[in-house]
Write a structure and sequence with these properties.
The chain is α+β, with helices and mostly antiparallel strands. The protein has 2 domains: 18-75 and 320-342, Malate/L-lactate/L-sulpholactate dehydrogenase, four-helix barrel (Hypothetical Oxidoreductase Yiak, Chain: A, domain 1, Orthogonal Bundle); 84-195 and 239-288, Malate/L-lactate/L-sulpholactate dehydrogenase, NADPH binding domain (Ribosomal Protein S8, Chain: A, domain 1). Helices cover 40% and strands 20% of the residues. The chain has 13 helices and 12 strands. The strands form 3 sheets. Strands 2-3-4-11-5-6-7 form a 7-stranded mixed β-sheet. Strands 9-8-10 form a 3-stranded antiparallel β-sheet. The termini are close together. Bound molecules: NADPH dihydro-nicotinamide-adenine-dinucleotide phosphate.
């Protein structure tokens, strides 16, 4: 291995077809620390990013490392920031990420979140001044594995979504995620953008020279287009589900930006330096202890519900694909792509 920031302690994958999860985490971590991230921050981000790659959420996997490095190297995000955590009420935890990344800031509030859940059964976790450009499911799944119901949302910060009637992008792709424990099974976790396609997937299509599905977006003149170049360069992505997706996106910005004190997409997009990949925005999580519902059998009841859905023909539930990829990666390793090889340059 060679070059500043080349992965240390990880097995060189050049020529290999698979890499272990642990080696991938180490490789990303090494790049992030070389770019100025504190070790604990680098660990949290690398684990998140490698988890996305391992589970097949490729739009937020290793392909995103370059964006993290860019934000660190130009000083746009602070990889050494220590989040300030304030208990604003028995159930309300406010976090100022101080221009750091959201996942380490959320991790820093772990004790306060646990206290709110113990005292009241609910934790509303409001983050501001935080950069988040990954998937929501890693944190949500973790809450569900601890027996909690959790939902999360992000005002994601890049003006990209043009609802019907608007003449320019007014929202970002603003994702929403939900996770619930299920007795004797993995949690059910869904997590998707409120746009017809995530920005990351569109970028991947562009890289691969492929068209987007009909209805994905518009060009700079507002005319429907399936060309990722048109949509990404001056055009815009449509919300999913017409006005319904648009108003979900509205709700996400009002909660993840308005309520948290973080920036709305229209504010942060103007502030971000040219070419920035991460955005200093806000996120909101709501975590619930389901035992407070007066129903100690919650996970078993959800299990019965899930069994009914599968019995009705819904063979694939959100999370199934990721868990299958994860099981395969545990057995055979994670497929090594050129993007992963580049971590070792
Ligand atoms: P998708 O349209 O790919 O949908 C993803 C969700 O739907 C997953 O939970 C997936 O489960 C589930 N799913 C997909 N197809 C099916 C199916 N046929 N049956 C059942 N469940 C299905 O998501 P997006 O492309 O919109 O978003 C991808 C990621 O991008 C998300 O993780 C999101 O958080 C992230 N994102 C992050 C942003 C940010 O600013 N931080 C902005 C926008 C998006 P499974 O995973 O098991 O396939």
């Amino acid at each position: 291995m060679s070059g500043n920031g080349a992965a240390k302690g990880a097995e060189e994958p050049r020529g290999a077809e698979r890499i272990t999860f642990e080696d991938l985490v180490a490789a990303i971590e090494s790049k992030l620390t070389a770019a100025g991230a504190a070790p604990a921050t680098a660990r949290v981000l690398a684990t998140n990013c490698a988890s996305c790659e391992r589970d097949g959420t490729l739009s937020h996997g290793v392909f995103r490392v370059a964006g993290y490095l860019d934000s660190l190297e130009r000083g746009w995000a602070d990889g050494t920031a220590e989040a300030s955590v304030e208990v604003a009420g028995a159930s309300f935890v406010r976090i100022d990420g101080r221009n750091g990344f959201a996942q380490p800031a959320l991790a820093a509030a772990g004790p306060q979140i646990e206290q709110a859940l113990a005292d009241t059964g609910v934790a509303v976790v409001a983050l501001r001044n935080t950069h988040h450009f990954s998937a929501l499911w890693p944190e949500l799944e973790s809450f569900a594995r601890d027996g909690r119901v959790a939902m999360g949302m992000i005002a994601s910060g890049k003006l990209a979504v043009v609802p019907e009637g608007a003449t320019c992008p007014v929202f970002s792709t603003n994702p929403f995620g939900f996770a619930t424990p299920v007795a004797e099974a993995d949690p059910v976790v869904f997590d998707f953008s409120t746009s017809s396609m995530s920005h990351g997937d569109l970028q991947l299509l562009r890289t691969e020279g492929e068209e987007a599905p009909v209805g994905t977006g518009v060009d700079s003149a507002g005319v429907a287009s399936t060309d990722p170049n048109d949509i990404l360069d001056g055009g815009g992505i449509r919300p999913f589900g017409g006005h319904k997706g648009a108003m979900l996106s509205f709700m996400i910005e009002t909660l993840a930006a308005g309520l948290t004190g973080g920036a709305f997409t229209f504010e942060i997009d103007a502030e971000a330096p040219e070419g920035a990949h991460t955005f200093r925005t806000g996120q909101l999580y709501i975590v619930i202890d389901p035992e407070r519902g007066g129903n100690e059998a919650y996970p078993a009841r959800v299990q019965g519900f899930v069994d009914m859905l599968r019995g009705a023909g819904m063979e694939r539930l959100p999370g199934d694909r990721r868990y299958a990829n994860r099981a395969e990666a545990a057995e055979r390793g994670i497929p090594v792509t050129d993007t992963i090889r580049a971590l070792f340059d």
